């Protein structure tokens, strides 16, 4: 293995290292932690038992092997979320065996699928010392049903894996992917992420049927999957009795090992479009214009209104426009708008269906959005060569790519973190949210990176500011900023739908109706479903009695 | 309107015919292996490191390096640097675990990137 010194020498010689913050690319924790109060000898015994189940090669317990299980975009030192070890099973039976060992030894286990949830914690566990259950090796696409337009996948299948498979086999089904194509189909759905086609609200539109291993090793199929025959398992999601699938999203109640994913058949036609708006306040009338179009489903896909810097950062770097500290100044913003032909706000949507249907929809959409001052319309024909339009056009037709990850290329050696309040589709509220978040972000010295995505009846306000990794001051200021934003959003009654490991407890505490009755309900379920308290302590602010 | 309905129905009919008989069950790995170094590069690296706009790794490296030097495949890459960057991360690039890229696959990527390609 290459030493740190040799790496520095080699990269310096090749010019790659110049300008990087010294060494922040690989900060080891002080030591690999043991889980909680477990005796090290007993932990070693558990690892031996796990090796007997999955094989020597798939238990990772040495510090160099655990680098990939850290949060690469961590705000705190690596110790805060350092894994004690990782184990990578290949089958449900192996998972059952591993959970048995974990129960018997009291070892907490944090499940990941592809581990690419960057901005929300990546592959790292909430509690230091937790053992990571890495399901990436379970990467089979178990079924592609062209007639009924669904697939069944295991946890390790990424969007790109699924897309490549469907392309290779001549399928006419469209994937709906998150912006970075390396994301996991199941992982994103279980974290209630979104995509950009008409199936963009993943859990609402796509999820149908789950196969789950509970902490005691019991395997369940949800919905119709529990009935013999299960013909409609992946076409009807509810079955009979309580519908429990939601309990396994953003939770620590079980290990989901298979999921039904409903997909969209390739439509008869597709036309992406973009509308730019030069005014900062345009988000208000734009949102008002979008709402009726979404409610009437004339805009069928996840409609995204993207702010200037998010749009610009996939094409250019900050140092090309401003080299000083603090938020980028108005003069640079104007130059970005001129150079890239973008607006303060940039709306993306797609038309789908036979040409006549698209023509008819476009007439209504164009006339409605034209009512927003300064609207300029762009299509694939008029907008060639721009990376931003190109990757949006791909996303809205389910083609995975990595272009949006370019927002992290805005500054050297950067990471980003997600803050995601949910706002009703209301122009006044959207403008209020945008102004407050931008003001607080700029005051903390960070550029505002944001977009509003309308799934159907709500807007996800996604704020993903970049910061310099390994810069302790920036990390501290970013934590203070996100905590202030959570407080502010809570005071304004904007719920937060998803958050980074460092803020899960705080966000959970903001759901405080009736003295936190919901948290009590979640705890009761945790106690009933995972009495040993081994599954993902701290996920979404849910802690087992044992670990607490 | 009648023409619209007729054409839509025809389009849907054709589409339904295309679908008929396509229903299948496939149980196979997401990626058929073993993949070559070039195929592994395309799967894991190209989306960020290919030349031209829309590739975040290239965009970032262009801030430090001139011309083709910013494009991974167009430079001669020190094998140890590639190994280290993949397993430990490099700047904005996160590390890749052995469950994603095996040690054997990493060596094939290393070989693929050892010499510049046109």
Textual characterization of the structure:
- The complex is a heterodimer of chains A (548) and B (118).
- Chain A is of the alpha+beta class and 548 residues long.
- Chain A folds into 3 domains: 104 residues, 2-Layer Sandwich (Uridine Diphospho-n-acetylenolpyruvylglucosamine Reductase, domain 2), CATH 3.30.43.10; 125 residues, Uridine Diphospho-n-acetylenolpyruvylglucosamine Reductase, domain 3, CATH 3.30.465; 236 residues, 3-Layer(aba) Sandwich (Vanillyl-alcohol Oxidase, Chain A, domain 3).
- Helices cover 32% and strands 18% of the residues of chain A.
- Chain A has 15 helices and 21 strands.
- In chain A, helix 12 runs antiparallel to helix 13.
- Chain A is globular, with a radius of gyration of 23 Å.
- The N terminus of chain A is likely disordered.
- Chain B is mainly alpha-helical and 118 residues long.
- Chain B has a single domain, classed as Cytochrome c-like domain (Cytochrome Bc1 Complex, Chain D, domain 2, Orthogonal Bundle), CATH 1.10.760.
- Chain B contains 6 helices and 1 strand.
- The longest helix of chain B has 18 residues.
- Strand 5 of chain A pairs antiparallel with strand 1 of chain B.
Short recap of the structure:
Chain A has 548 residues and is of the alpha+beta class.
Number of domains of chain B: 1
Number of domains of chain A: 3
Give the structural class of chain B. Answer: mainly alpha
- Give helix and strand order of chain B, one letter per element, not per position: HEHHHHH
Question: What's the mean pLDDT score of chain B?
Answer: 81
Name given to the CATH homologous superfamily of chain B? Cytochrome c-like domain
